[in-house]
Amino acid sequence: MNNLYKPIIIEDFIIGRHVTFHVITDGYNALPLSSAYVYKKSEEGNSGYLTEGMGASAPVSYLDEQLEEKIAHKIFFPLIDGLNSEKMSSCGVLKANIIIDDKDNPYLIGINVSFGDPEAQTILPLLNDDLFAVMYSASIGALSDDYEFLNLSEDHSVCVNLISSGYPNKFKKGQLIEGLDEIDDDSILIFHAATTKNIYEETLTNGGRVLSVVAKAATQHRARDLVYETIDLIRFDGMKYRKDIAKQRVLEEVKDIK
Fold it and tell me: How many domains, the chain?
């Protein structure tokens, strides 16, 4: 008879804007890094397979100081206090995946105790402080003594992941990557996620998400142009990437200026 009754879980269906938010904590205090928007779907227009990340942009324009305060007091500080009450004090990075509804109420949909990827490639170039010094301060419980706030750049950054065709399913490895030696711009960072070297010291693909190309500039519009101009220099068989990373963010930026 009991088999006729199965438990169900009823949850609110939350519609809103997504944001990823990182803080560094010493277990008692927390300091925010830049917010970021992550593009998870494999195809343009946020369609296709769900991946670990096809790109990201930072900071998120709709996350103002008032909303950051709300996130801190509704999500991060209760979380830190709760961990302490359970004798599970967390020291290091907390990454929150948050949905913000149309009334600017933040809802936590996921939490991690590490940097996100590709969020880290996108937000860390905007940190002007020495990351090692900040993390060391957090590790000895001196975060609030050493830092009133983190020194974040007013620049914008855009990250686009270059992937092997077929990712996140089957893909080929060992494809020769060309064009990396043509990149000479201090505004550009190239992160190797899945590459290797052959006996000739040539760079080859060695996984699904191969490279993260990151550009930093005074506006998101310029950062986006820079990242795609750089991608045009890179070549390998089966190279694929989304061409709409930060496109909507740029349109919002232009609208705000007008």
Answer: 1
